[in-house]
Design goal:
The complex is a heterodimer of chains A (222) and B (132). Chain A is mainly beta and 222 residues long. Chain A has 4 helices and 22 strands. Chain A starts with a strand and ends in a 14-residue tail after the last strand. The chains are: A mainly beta (222), B alpha+beta (132). Chains A and B meet through β1, β4, β5, β8 and α1 of A and β1, β2, β3, β4 and α4 of B.
């Protein structure tokens, strides 16, 4: 999900018909610059070097989204495929969720997230939490610092709790539902769901989270 | 290459024929190289694959043509959740965005395919692109 404003100009993006390592290359109508979809960067043309700002988004199932955001609208159009359903994230292989920025990147594999379901981690100096919701197959990444305080999260009988205050949090809306933190919000991160191979090709410097030997909770990485 | 021979080149028509032959050969070589290049491009193979020694950059950007260019999608039917009905089923994956109190979902099953892939939209007054 990208913001379409670049240097004060609103761009309209189209499929260029080109692929770069099997990845979509976009073209903008206004300048005909070519953009890497995965990098969000103009690779050719008058805007070469420009980086699109991202808008935080979540990949989840429709049921989860519409129940969390009852006032939501939706884009409707005839389907081109039937394949993309929650089972893909619950059972399919090869998916990662990743963070990238300032020349750094890190990825967490779905196969491991399904087992561990919450990872208290760090990226680019920031404390983040990677959460897997195993009813919807949603992977999501949020910052875990609230009011200058780092929280550590765990699942307890289907509820996401922070150890420091015992507050319950909704991983989808990143909001505390009850407890001392009620009403507080975690800062959404731009977690990108991608195929493992595609991520490593476009982020060759990426680190990969290594789960601890035991599938139980692990202490936060320093 | 020994051309048999000087006898042929002596005549004007012979000279023209010889030049024509050379041109044809050169053009044949050029056509063959062009065909090789086209085939390489059509296969989507970059001149050097991306990897740790060849990270993605403007210098390593070598796209291949897969399909023709598509027009930008700017007209999208947007409905409320109540109006969706069976057009999006509960287990279908969507990209969900929430900006300034406004939320919208884009189903992956409609974003897939070269004629889709990018939706130019607005949400909470901000121009955004849903891409897949």
């Amino acid at each position: 999900m990208y913001a379409r404003s670049v240097k004060g100009q609103t761009l309209h993006f189209a499929v260029s018909g080109l692929l770069w390592e099997m990845s979509l290359v976009m073209i903008d109508r206004e300048t005909r610059s070519l953009w890497s979809h995965l990098l969000g960067e103009a690779m050719r043309g008058p805007l070469q070097g420009e980086q699109l700002a991202t808008v935080p988004s979540i990949m989840t199932d429709w049921q989860t989204w519409r129940t969390r955001y009852p006032g939501t609208t939706a884009a409707v159009m005839p389907r081109t495929t039937q394949d993309y359903r929650r089972d893909l994230h619950l059972e399919g292989s090869g998916f990662v969720i990743g963070l990238a920025g300032n020349g750094q990147s890190r990825a967490w594999r779905f196969t491991e997230l399904r087992l561990h379901r919450v990872v208290n981690d760090r990226f680019a100096g920031q404390a983040v939490v990677v959460i897997f919701d195993d009813t919807s197959g949603t992977a999501v990444i949020h910052g875990r610092t609230v009011d200058d305080r780092e929280l550590t999260f765990r699942w307890n009988e289907g509820r996401l709790i922070d150890r420091e205050t015992g507050s319950e949090w909704d991983p989808i809306t990143a909001t505390a539902l009850s407890g001392p933190m009620k009403g507080k919000e975690l800062l959404r991160q731009d977690g990108v769901v991608s195929l493992d191979q595609a991520w490593m090709i476009f982020h060759p410097e990426s680190t990969l989270w290594q789960p601890p030997p035991s599938p139980r909770e692990e202490p936060p990485t320093t | 290459m020994s051309i048999p021979s000087t006898r042929i080149i002596r005549t004007a028509t012979g000279a023209v024929a010889c030049v024509a032959a050379v041109v044809a050969i050169v053009m044949g070589i050029v056509a063959f190289q062009d065909w090789q290049l086209r085939r390489q491009i059509a296969s989507g193979t970059p001149y050097e694959p991306l990897g740790p020694d060849n990270p993605p950059s403007a210098a390593s950007f070598h796209p291949g043509r897969a399909v023709e260019e598509m027009p930008p999608i700017t007209e999208i039917e947007i409905v409320s959740a109540e109006e969706v009905g069976g057009r999006i089923e509960d287990d279908e994956l969507v990209i969900g965005v929430a900006i300034d109190g406004e939320a919208r979902a884009y189903p992956l099953n409609v974003l897939t395919g070269p004629e889709r892939e990018i939706f130019n939209d607005h949400l909470a007054g901000r121009p955004i692109a849903a891409t897949w």
